[in-house]
Amino acid sequence: MPHDSALETHIELTVNSDMSSNWYVYLVRTPNNSLYCGITTDVERRFKQHCEGKGAKALKGKSPLILVWHDKAGSNRSEASQIEYRLKQLPKSKKEALVLKKITLDNSINSN
C-alpha cells in the first residue's frame, strides 16, 4: 500500500508541536482592564501575534495590550489546556493576585 508522505509529515509536525517540553499559561490585560488567558510554547511570539491582531478573536482591536503574567504550565498541550481551563474558572480577584505575585499558580488552581 503506498503511503502519503505529505500526510505523514503533517502528522509528525502535529505530534512534535504538541509534545514540546515547555508550555506556558499567560494573562494579557486589555485597555478595559479585562484579563485574557491563553497557552503557548513561546510567550513572546504569541504576545506579539496578539498585538498584531493575529490569533485570538477576543483580543482583535483591543490594543494596547499588556502581557502582565506568565508561568510554566506543563510539558504538553494537554496539561497546559487543563491548567488554562482551571485558571479561566478563577474569579478575577485571584487572577489579579497572580499578577501581583500574592499567590502562585499552584496555590490558585489547587485551592478551588
TrEMBL record:
Full protein name: GIY-YIG nuclease family protein
Protein family: Belongs to the UPF0213 family.
Organism, scientific name: Vibrio amylolyticus
CDD domains to which the protein is assigned, alphabetical: GIY-YIG_UPF0213 (cd10456)
Source species taxonomy: Bacteria, Pseudomonadati, Pseudomonadota, Gammaproteobacteria, Vibrionales
Family annotation (SUPFAM superfamilies): GIY-YIG endonuclease (SSF82771)
Highest taxon, organism lineage: Bacteria
One Pfam short name: GIY-YIG
InterPro entries: GIY-YIG_endonuc, GIY-YIG_endonuc_sf, UPF0213_domain
Gene3D superfamilies linked to this entry: GIY-YIG endonuclease
GIY-YIG domain: residues covered: 21-97
